[in-house]
Amino acid sequence: MENFFERAKQKVQGLTNKPSQDDTAATQDAIQSAYNDATAEEKQQLQDLQQKLDQ
């Protein structure tokens, strides 16, 4: 089974300063997928990743 949390982290880290809409959408999907099965600590980290994405 794929580790959705690690996938989401890698997606956010892989974004450039001006990501395309497709890149942003894929990253959002990865974060949402990871959030469903995340621990409380991972959920906090995912929220932090989401904030980075929103900036």
TrEMBL record:
Segments of skewed composition (Basic and acidic residues): 40-55
InterPro entries: DUF3813 (IPR024217)
Start-end of Polar residues biased regions: 13-26
Annotated segments matching region Disordered: 1-26, 36-55
A Pfam family of this chain: DUF3813
Record's protein name: DUF3813 domain-containing protein
The species this protein was found in: Terribacillus halophilus
Lineage: Bacteria, Bacillati, Bacillota, Bacilli, Bacillales
